[in-house]
Amino acid sequence: MDSDRRGQWLRGVLDICVLALLSEGESYGYQLAQALDAGGVGPIQGGTLYPVLLRLQKTGLVTAQWREGSAGPARKYYRLTDDGYAALRAGGSAWLTFVRPVNDIVTKGVTR
Which Pfam families has this protein been placed in (predicted)? Predict the structure, then answer.
């Protein structure tokens, strides 16, 4: 897939994906990047992910807390706030409303 296109798509949905992952429980950046990759989104660089996490933190959708690591450096753990859960419900619903007709249109075109 064209990396420019993938990047454009990611910019539109990465916030929602991160919120959805954090709805499963708190996590730190590297762990989120691994989960995104394992989920099929592909590799996400820190230079892409950490600005998203900072923006989500500044807007009050996540909180962050530094914790000492048992076998390594301290990690910054992120957790959804009540506003984050609300944003996930609203944004996730809006995304699903958008993507369903897009999938239908593209599927029809590809299968012709």
Answer: PadR
In the chain, domain spans: 1-109
Distance CA 4, CA 14 (A): 15
Q: Looking at the domain covering 1-109, what would its CATH class be?
A: mainly alpha
Which tens digits make up the pLDDT trace of 9-60? 888 899 999 999 999 999 999 999 999 999 999 999 989 999 999 999 999 9
Residue 37 amino acid letter? D
C-alpha span between 80 and 103 (Å, rounded): 29
Answer for the pair 83, 61: CB distance below 8 angstroms, yes or no.
yes
73-93 tens-digit pLDDT = 889 999 999 999 999 999 999
Residue 33 is inside which H or E element, if any?
helix 29-38
